[in-house]
Amino acid sequence: MNTIPSIKERYDLLFPDEVITPQVVTKIEQQLQLQLPDDFKEIALFFNGGLVGGISIFSYANHHPNLIEETLRLRKDIQFPHSLVFLAEPAGSMIVLDTATTPSVIWCDSIDVYQLHDRSFQVAPDTWDTFSDFFAYLLTQEEQEA
């Protein structure tokens, strides 16, 4: 089972110098006007975005691009669902966090961005029930690369 303490321990072995403040999470919730899942909040205390498992997750704070700016941009440009947070944009795809339903993390082809509101994907996405499951997957990828 992927408990937050075990995920943090694995992360700290790979990236020992990361330090995050709880205000980062509060800022995300306030600016995006949504409630983040508890596991995302706990992981955000030691992970602030960046490259892990071969995926560049948008920064949570002031670096550019960051997930606040990118989520707000998509909300404006394509009527991105309000419950989603834009986490990453790997080549030809996008990874989002759904703060309202399960699965919580969806990695879909970029052609399916307009199907996120009703989940009528042309290509079946990869999904994880929780953010901690997704983050544990990224750590496994990172560990295998090391």
Describe the protein in words.
The structure is a single chain. With 146 residues, the chain is an alpha+beta fold. Helix content is 38%, strand content 17%. It has helices at 4-14, 22-32, 38-44, 67-78, 131-145; strands at residues 50-52, 55-57, 84-88, 93-98, 105-109, 126-128. The chain is globular. The model has no long low-confidence stretch (mean pLDDT 90).
Secondary structure layout plus pairing:
Elements: H1 4-14, H2 22-32, H3 38-44, E1 50-52, E2 55-57, H4 67-78, E3 84-88, E4 93-98, E5 105-109, E6 126-128, H5 131-145
Antiparallel strand pairs: 1-2, 3-4, 4-5, 5-6
Strand share of the residues? 15-25%
Helicity range:
25-40%
Mean pLDDT: 90
Which structural class do the helices and strands define?
A: alpha+beta
Q: Please trace the helix and strand order, writing H or E for each element.
A: HHHEEHEEEEH
Low-confidence stretches: none
**Adjacency order of strands in the biggest sheet:** 3-4-5-6
The major β-sheet equals: 4 strands, antiparallel
Can you tell me the overall shape?
globular
Number of strands: 6
Radius of gyration: 14 Å
Total helical segments:
5
Provide a brief overview of the structure.
The chain is of the alpha+beta class and 146 residues long. The chain has five helices and six strands, in the order αααββαββββα.
Q: Notable features of this structure?
A:
alpha+beta; two-stranded antiparallel ribbon; four-stranded antiparallel beta sheet; globular
